[in-house]
Amino acid sequence: MSNANQHGRVSHIGQVIGDAFEEVVFRFIKHYLKKNHPEFVILNPEQGKKLLTLDMPGGVKRQLDTVIAFADSDDPIALLETKWLKDGRHWNDKGAWILQLREVRRNYPTVRGAAAVLAGYWNEGVRVLLKKEGGGIDMILVATDDEIYRSLQPALDQYLGEETFVLDAKEIRHRFPEQHVEKFDDFITKMRNNGDLYKLAKIWLSFDRQLETGERVKGKRLVQNALDELLKPLPKNIKISQFEITFELETGNLIHKAFTDLEELVEFINETARDSGKIREIISPKKRKGKISEEMGLYEIEDDDDDW
Questions:
Q1: How many whole angstroms from its chain centre is CA 183?
Q2: Second label for 22, Cα 20 to 30 Å away, from 29, 61, 97, 307?
């Protein structure tokens, strides 16, 4: 099998697993809303792609996996993404996709929050970073790649018989074993086509997850908790928790600050907005203090070669 064909097979395997995961999460959320939050519905492609396409700053259009709205409105209330990750090489791509949820929220004041339902090789450091940088997006890992492969192992053993092989998550993160790519792709495709993969994928929401308190709960319970939090009734008195302001300068610089106190915000605006000297002070690079040293990782590069 050629390298291009093998790469295509590996990509297809990931796509099939990712699609099965998305489908089971989507159906689970739809069922949970109908039972526990009947005033809300999911806007999905079957209802019209236009409803799923949200405007982002700069005029960019963004399609989301799951948008929740009131049954009598098309205005988004909660945003959700579902992401399967085979290896760490795509942390940046998938993470950037999730972080864009924050940008979408800036254009829709009706949106209360966002959550990302994850499966695969998402290590805790990446999840914590994305939650922090994503403006509090709830990062819910319901199944690791090892758990998903172990759930597929019995069906694979039955399908291949004596020719079966072990689905080793650590090995697959680096590279799917070349000699098994074709037969595993055939296996996972057959499972998808006959409906067995979706049936199996339902257990991916039932693996135990340990909370910071030490308590163990099912992954689907974490999804339910996130939905309950996002869709709870608005309080009678709504308070502002944080103020943010951005000055965009003609020089291309941005001055961005966040405040929890309104008076501090107003004071900053009054002291800065009309004071060119203050603005210059903020955006001008500060001179380094102390001596340049090798310990700081800073070196003076001497190069007399003018032949460039």
A1: 31
A2: 61
Tally Cβ neighbours within 10 Å of residue 64.
19
Higher pLDDT: 2 or 6? It is 6
134 pLDDT exceeds 60? no
CA distance 112 to 75: 11
Do residues 132 and 156 lie in contact, with contact meaning Cβ atoms separated by under 8 Å? no
Please give the Cα distance from 13 to 86 (Å, whole number).
10
Say if strands 216-218 and 208-210 run parallel, antiparallel, or are unpaired: antiparallel
Per-residue pLDDT of 79-95, as tens digits, reads: 888 889 887 665 566 56
Give the separation between CA 200 and CA 198, rounded to whole angstroms. Answer: 5
Question: Among 165, 116, 168, 166, which Cα is nearest to 142's?
Answer: 116
Rounded Cα distance between 98 and 122, Å, is 13
What is the tens place of the pLDDT at every residue in 136-151?
A: 678 899 999 999 999 9
State the virtual CA torsion across 266, 267, 272, 275 in degrees, nearest 10.
110
Residues facing residue 246 across a β-bridge: 256
Range with lowest mean pLDDT among 38-52, 61-75, 109-123, 247-261: 38-52
Using CA atoms, how far apart are residues 121 and 211, in angstroms rounded to an integer?
18
What pTM was computed for the model? Answer: 0.80
